Amino acid sequence: MTIRACDLGGTRLKIGVVRDGIVLAQTVEPANSKQGLAPQLPVLKAAWLRLLGELKLTWRDCAGIGVAFPSLIDADTGRVLAQYGKFADAMGLDLRAWAKDELGLPLAIENDARMALIGEWRAGAGRGVDDLVMMTIGTGLGVGVLIQGRLLRGKHGQAGVLGGHTTVRYGGRECNCGNVGCAEAEASTAFLCELAACLPEWDHSSLRRLATLNYALAVNLIHAYDPEMVILGGGIMASAEVILPAVRAHVARHAHTPWGKVRVVAGELGDRAALLAGEWLVQEQFPNTR
Amino acid sequence: MTIRACDLGGTRLKIGVVRDGIVLAQTVEPANSKQGLAPQLPVLKAAWLRLLGELKLTWRDCAGIGVAFPSLIDADTGRVLAQYGKFADAMGLDLRAWAKDELGLPLAIENDARMALIGEWRAGAGRGVDDLVMMTIGTGLGVGVLIQGRLLRGKHGQAGVLGGHTTVRYGGRECNCGNVGCAEAEASTAFLCELAACLPEWDHSSLRRLATLNYALAVNLIHAYDPEMVILGGGIMASAEVILPAVRAHVARHAHTPWGKVRVVAGELGDRAALLAGEWLVQEQFPNTR
Description:
Shape of chain A: globular
Oligomer: homodimer
CATH topology of the largest domain in chain A: Nucleotidyltransferase, domain 5
Number of strands of chain A: 12
Largest sheet of chain A: 5 strands, mixed
Low-confidence stretches of chain A: none
CATH superfamily of the largest domain in chain A: ATPase, nucleotide binding domain
CATH class of the largest domain in chain A: Alpha Beta
Radius of gyration of chain A: 19 Å
Structural class of chain A: alpha/beta
Number of domains of chain A: 2
Strand content of chain A: 15-25%
Helix content of chain A: 25-40%
């Protein structure tokens, strides 16, 4: 099955054409997310047309559109359920109607961290493993969860993906979400950079202490969701050779898993994970597409 | 359907006969849990016989046995998966074989905090709500989770029930489970009493500070599992009139739930919750029982 895919980040729109677990072509556009999503829809359309042209495919070759979006999503209705400053107009847009009217295709949308998990599960580090947690540590801290082969979504689309918004440091920093001492507020790269900027005496030991909050979060997620494997992804994995052994050691010491040992691995697909996930999502949401 | 039910706590064995969502009769025996479970099995058998006699029922009137147990459980096989000092021999016992040979009945077993949730869901405060988190705060801190009408268990029986073992205070106390700063280590009554004993200057403000870690855990569980309702149970609910408003205020302020408001309520069934759950569990595990 061939689909159009996009991963709408706060700073970059990643746009691709995917077939049978392979990204056939992809491109990147600036997101201008402060201006909303509506002005970017023609950008997506044009980019897909260009990519399809390069591949000598037409719109008729596509079965659907898979979208990864940085918010809470109702995958069944295709609606965006919350807004966090990026693409603030998205809650009011009917993306399915746009895709049908403008592109003649069904559109499936899901939270971006959940999409990264789906991609790694179907085509990356989590292939063949049906109990997975993925932490995407970048500007924010996204989590996706798969339990016994079922994607964890919850009634309001919040289950799993808010993993970065659990208190790991009681009495800690206030987070954008309203909670206090969240892993995202304490240890995502956005906050690390913000802290580094306001602390001239910033040093490596402080950075290391904050990084360990991510390790604490990994243990919390293992205790919460009972996975066989934790996949780490996002910008922080540029330092995978430092972080992976540290997380593994922390998990081995502190996670309570009498059944055995949780594997901790790096994601394999990088930015492509959320694009590749679109194929699974279109099939899940529109089982009658070819 | 009539079943024999028991809730095997570290200090008390709660034993009952349940039919159609009602505890027909119940009794309590000392657990002597340090001596293991095997010596208590004849105690259970005798207590059920006595209760059935009082009810003018015979073993033939019973369809099965439902057991709540303070450990990780594989509900599908009926095996105990870990031991925590209480009933240390239980991992080596075949309880299903015992029930069949000694009592001629199928036996279903599940984690006690999960059983408390099931009881409140089927017959108590959570009736009609299919997205529930229950925190049972007593000697330990047990959690049970229901998502879209499905009990959250995980591949190794750990999902949800280890909710008390997530770090809420980074750099905090070491917990029995191996983790650090767990809610259970920081805020269960066992640790509160231990702390109170070693701190002569123990005062109400310290107690209050520790109690608020339970409120932080409530928010963490809402973020992790996306419930519509949080049910609080356990010994701590003797102070429900203090705790409920405090948890509600903390959740209203700190939980990120753009869909609406999570209800925070007290469990209605107390000790009976886990007994009543046995009926649902027997039906789930042995769907052909009458």
